[in-house]
Amino acid sequence: MFSSNLSALESDWQEKTYQFLLQGNYIQAANLYEQAIECEPSVKSHYWQLGLMLLLQGQEAEAQTTWLLGMAEGEAEEIESWTHELIEVLQTEADRQRDLGEYKVAWAIRQHIREINPKDINNLLHSIGLSTMLETYSGEELIELGVIELLKSESAEDVDFELLMQVLKNVLDRAPLYASSFDLTEACINHVKDTEYFQRILVPFVYDICHCAKQAELAARFTELALRLSPKDPELLGTLSSFYQDCGEHSKAIETAKLYYSLTEGLANKIYANFSIVRALMGEGGRWEEVCLALETLKLLLTSILAEQPTSIPPFATVRLYISVFFFPYVQDRAQENIQLRRQVSQLVALNIENYRKDLIEKYRQPKSASIKINTPNKRLKIGYLSHCLRNHSVGWLARWVFEYRDRDRFEVSAYLFGSKMSHDNLEDWYVSKVDKAYKLGIDSCETAEKIYEDEIDILVDLDSITISNSCEILAVKPAPVQVTWLGWDASCLPNIDYYIADPYVLPEAAQDYYQEKIWRLPQTYIAVDGFELGIPTLRRDKLDIGSDAVIYLSAQRGYKYNPHTARLQLRIIKEVPNSYFLVKGLAEQESLKRFFLEVAESEGVAPDRLRFLQLTGTEGEHRANLGIADVVLDTYPYNGATTTMETLWMGVPMVTRVGEQFAARNSYTMMMNAGISEGIAWTDEEYVEWGIRLGKDAVLRQQISWKLRQSRQTAPLWNGKQFTRELEKAYEQMWQIYVEKNH
Predict the structure, then answer these.
(1) pTM for this model (two decimals)
(2) What's the CA gap between 519 and 498, in Å, rounded?
(3) 641-676: b or e for each residue (b if 16 or more CB lie within 10 Å)?
């Protein structure tokens, strides 16, 4: 009956097969197509559709047999045309299944298209994209399917550009560190029809792999690819300079930063470009005159923008402006001047953030659920810690005891691990295990601020201060009612920070006169630890060609902290102490650092063979153990050691520090006082040299100091993490009480 009436009912049965397809009733659709073939065996589309219906039922062999039957007895040209028709049918259904979210079915159909035409680049790209969505992508497919080679050989006209870009984004999102992901990106270069589109995919990605995966070298390689398309793009050059600096390519960092500055327009962008030059020069070490000149230029640029007070600086430029003042404390101990400049810049940054983040600020200013007074029974104060450094980093090593000893009955603690969504770090995992809630986040400040707000955090503690630019947006919109800066650096001076944690020593008594935040001085120390893990020492006197009776001085600081003035003081000490040697270790370009110290040694009349330059160690435990080789550690100024100072004191090694006015110049002072020693604390350059000489010549005094330091492990505030935690938590409760009384 169907056969005799097919012509009259043709439109009807085709509609029925389509409806069966939409309903997923592939058996009924297949039955209709079988009847259609019986009636019209020469209509090839019936075979293609029947095979598809069989394929959708999982009958792959039967589907292939049906397609081969349709191809039977055709001429070469006919078979080519029919093959094209079949592929179109399969592609249409693969797209439909993908749109339905049936990625597995769509992927299976794409595999059959690949069997028919293994070099169809767009089909292969679809297959890769589907495997990423199915989360079965392993990174090997790009090589196994020949995608990379095909992209290198295919013309741009043959490749669907938008599809290619979507697949690239998916691959980079799901397999960022695979070698094949870089190869795919490189192969895409010749097919890019819209450079801005390509960069919108690549630029956020390179920031993620640098700041979230801590893979600066790989980030630099990807950025170099983008520069092939836009070799004079200022933003790419600025980004690349930063990555070069992070992975130790100092010469490249300087060269790229200078090119970036020459191509940059706009005052805010000029400021960051100049900052990039300063950072690159500081990172190499030993280029002091150039650093000072660049900082003078930076100061002039900052003066100009502060005079203009622009209120429409773009977000990206705003957050970068925030860190532009970072290096001034490294070169000048002018506390009021440095803080005033930081306050002015931070206020301008906050003003611009208020303009482009009005929605968030208004939302966060709205009252949340009624605040409960601190003495309400069962109320646990919600503390949030914000940091990108709760990992194998100085902040991560020093903050542990606050998390270890926290009072779980009185405080609910959350950790907002900024820029860690792609990281794998044992210490970070430890922090995650110690809190009630932990979030491994990217570098999206709005996402982080929203989580803090949703968690109804009472006190947000910023551990990074001005060391990462994006955090300023979080703090400026104020997602928590009380905001505090502790540990990571000096105060940020952002208007919405309420308190800055200090102690009786680390800031002068008059510091409140020029600080933006309320200085909250803990009774003894602003930091304490129970100790440090030690490795096996790898430094030996015989390997350094230093006799057992010689006096060893050591300075082990980041290259940023070395400057000619302090180096001259250190070498005057070496000159005056017979049979003494100076060991220098620094995170910097080693040849540049060596050249710098040897030039200063020559000017001070110190023989170069009295200096030794140490390589960086493999682990922190090894670094700490190696400090024990020193008889005396010589601190840097105007930026003291911090973690290294505590490690030195824990190892029982005497040290000399020069105390100044700013926070950075008083770190070692407060740590020495809280470890129970005053020997080696100098208030002038002359005292610094005098203490250095005295400690070098007086072995008995060194032994006495070392004994006192070892004894202090049992009694000193610096080594009592539990007591410190109680004092810090008491401060949190008092801060909250002040807030409650002021607002209710």
Answers:
(1) 0.90
(2) 9
(3) bbbbbbbbbbbbbbbbbbbbbbbbbbbbbbbbbbbb
Q: Which residues fall within 8 angstroms of residue 531, CB to CB, at 6 or more apart?
A: 650, 713, 719
Average pLDDT of the residues of the chain: 93
For the segment 461-498, what is each residue's pLDDT rounded down to a tens digit?
Answer: 999 988 888 889 999 999 999 999 999 889 999 999 99
Strand partners for 440: 417
In what order do the strands lie in the sheet containing 499-502? 437-440, 411-417, 381-387, 459-462, 482-485, 499-502, 518-521
Q: Residue 35 carries which side chain, given as an amino acid letter?
A: Q
Q: What is the pLDDT of residues 130-150, one digit of tens each?
A: 999 999 999 899 999 999 999
**DSSP state, 657?**
E
pLDDT at 6 over 50: no
| pLDDT score of 8 | 45
CA–CA gap between residue 54 and residue 58 (Å, rounded): 7
Pairing label, strands 411-417, 681-682: unpaired
Q: Identify whether the C-beta of residue 36 lies closer than 8 Å to the C-beta of residue 46.
A: yes
Dihedral sign, Cα of residue 472, residue 476, residue 479, residue 483: positive
H or E stretch including 553? strand 551-556
Q: Which tokens sit at 238?
A: 């600025």
Q: Is 517 helix (H, G, I), strand (E, B) or coil?
A: coil
* DSSP per position, 408-477: TTTEEEEEEETT-TT---HHHHHHHHHSSEEEE--S-HHHHHHHHHHTT-SEEEES-GGGSTTHHHHHHH
For 11, 21, 35, 468, 472, the CA distances from 28, given in Å and listed in that order, are 16, 9, 11, 62, 62
Residue pair 425/433 in contact (Cβ under 8 Å)? The answer is no
| C-alpha–C-alpha distance, residues 35 and 46, integer Å | 9
SS3 660: coil
DSSP state of 370: P
- pLDDT band of residue 156 (cuts 50, 70, 90) is low
**Which letter does DSSP use for residue 652 in this model?**
T
Tokens of 742: 């002021």
- 30-44, 94-108, 430-444, 513-527: which range is least confident on average? 30-44
